[in-house]
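User: I'm curious whether this sequence folds into something compact or stays loose and floppy. Could you predict its structure so I can see for myself?
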Amino acid sequence: MDCLTQALQHELGISPTVKNFGPGTVEAVKKRFRLPDRETNANIIRIYNAALWCKGYYGSEHPAVWDSTAQDSLAELYFDIGLLPRAPIDADMWARITRSLLRMDQFRTVPGGDGTTKRIQQHLNQRYVQLVRIPAMNLVPTDGVYSRDVQQGLMLAVQYELGLDKATINGYFGDGTQQALKTKGTGNTLTAELELLFRAACWFNSPTWDSNGSAVHFHPENVLDEDLWAVTEPWVRTFQAFSQLPTGGENYNFQTWAQLLVSCGDTSRAAEGCDTAAYTSKERAQALKNNPSNPYRLIGRYLDEHLDPEDEHYLGKALKPGEARDIIDGGLGLFPLFQYNGTQLFNFTYEKGYDQGLKADAKAREHGIPHGSCIYFAVDYDAQDHHITSNVVPYFHGVRTALEKSGARYIFGVYGTRNVCERVSREAGARWSFVSGMSWGYSGNLGYPMPHNWSFNQIREYQFQAGYGLDHNIHRKNSDDGVWRLDATDNGDLSLRNYIDFVKRVEGVISTMGDGPPRQSVIDNTLAFLRWAEPNYHDWKWSAILGAIWQEVLDACAAAGIEPGDRLKYDDPRANHRITLAHFGAAAEGHFAYPGSGTDVTVGEACGWAGDILNAYTQWRENHRSMSGEDFCVQVVGSATVESRFSSDNLIADVDAYNISHYLHGLDGESGGGDDRLLSDALFTYHFWDGANRSAKRFTHFYENRFGGSPSTFRETVRNVLLDFDLFSAFDWGKKFFLPDDEDQRPDRIPSEQLASFVDGLHTVITRRMEGE
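Assistant: Here's the prediction. I'll summarize afterward.
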């Protein structure tokens, strides 16, 4: 196509020729204005025939001749573009057609294209190019694929329908367009053409994502011809919630329009997040938190800088010693960023990703960033799609490998355009996306919906204080909430790998104890040893269910220099939580000794998730009875910030205990089970073996393996935990130790709808954790 363009320029007398069909070429075609059937220059006919062949249409078998075959193909091209049949083609229109004919634009539906997008594309061409003749608008591709050119065409069409003068229409989302949208694009009804363009924008931004993490597609019967607000509204409300916009109100409002049209959306809206390359003192953090016009909650700061302080381009953007503590003490959460000159293609290779992953891990530990935190690695330029494939995705595979080999202390996220974020998340496993939305002109932000896992959207930059520049970032609720505590030191004492090494040492002692202890296996004794770390997990109630540990085990371990209290907690590598070892040991021992299935609950499960459900129920009825059961569960159960008898670290320990005991029994499709495995092997496989991806999807595995992935099974099983009483069941007999002293507050005494609300709330807690995976 470049060669054909230059050939046409040569034939039209343009010199020098260039690989671009620009304004000069357009004017030369207009000036000559000869349709192919009237063209006398054989070389120009050859160019037109060749262009048809390249576009997938039949040209003449005789390249220098324009025959009926070529003319029929040209008519077919007109139809595919969306032009009105039999409408006269003037000089201006022929120049636009010729430009499209000699570009890489496709007019037949390509693989992956869809009919609805094609019809919208044809409508844009027919109304706004052929009929209205917006000067700045060229024919858009009609290949059925939403792209940068199509998005630009949509913007130009919106500007026209808003009443902007045709001569000023430029596709730029500037003050004039924004003001026109605020006055003419709002309300419960719009002109038919504006409503059509609004629906087209919804179609192009589909899918969006609901609160359960499910994709929601916009599926009207006909985007172009019908008044479909009743069909459009559910999708729009979901889109608004996903985009962190107010829901409800007028059908059409400025913020929704802005979010549909440009990646930055409404840059004036309030935001909880910010990021900066400048040093942030405790006082400055407090000023950000207490900013009267826009109080912030979270700030992004760089872990390191690739340049030496002596370099003339050195920015001093890296966190300073003690700065992370000052930020948190100043009342802000911190989300760590990492960028080593990620502004050009050559900066992205697997090797560089691996090297920078190691550096990021070391720097995060140096600053006391706790395990499980997300580090965002930056792609700070407009990476093209094929470069994402060749370089960017391999770079992030390198990052991932480095972080895993460093002990899986941290998870990683990606900063970049919408396209970069979505592809890196799906193809390399980035947990969260930080979208460079203020770069709204980047191709990676044009023609792509918001990534499904976005946590921050950077929408504008400004000077917060003199010399202190700030980027303004929308933060999505229930996504990455940054770092709110720091490890005083990170000498590895609480690392998961050291915890597994500790378990191996215990197993080694137990495995060499002659005839062995009078319990089922090394696994049982190891779990009991972990449980013995805290007295409240081996009192008479626990011993009645699980038995007491064999004294010889304690003596043998002591002789080897190992005491149960040597390790009380460990840091989970995928969640920002410190897990109580004894809680995990008790829950896993119960699940391993008495595995449950179906809707019946065993006494062993009372040692883990089922017992904690009873604890949560009692807290609700004793302390939070004014709240509905669902509200209580959503706000308290699994919380890391609210006082809870079923806290987030307990929830993680319970789920891990079930999953690991399930694996130890060989119930997950892996070979072996029982004595064929050791707890340390199971822990390593669960947390580090990428092929299984177990701890990364711990809640999904728990929900599917224990409840068959069925909401009804989950609810029935939880109801059995709360309601079934059997005097001959150790679990049911023991419920009196969990449930409220006031018998009127027992599960079988409260109104059924209140109990159902509590069960629904527990289901919401689990499914929300699943959607975060």
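Summary: Confidence is low (pLDDT under 50) at residues 669-675. The chain has 29 helices and twelve strands.
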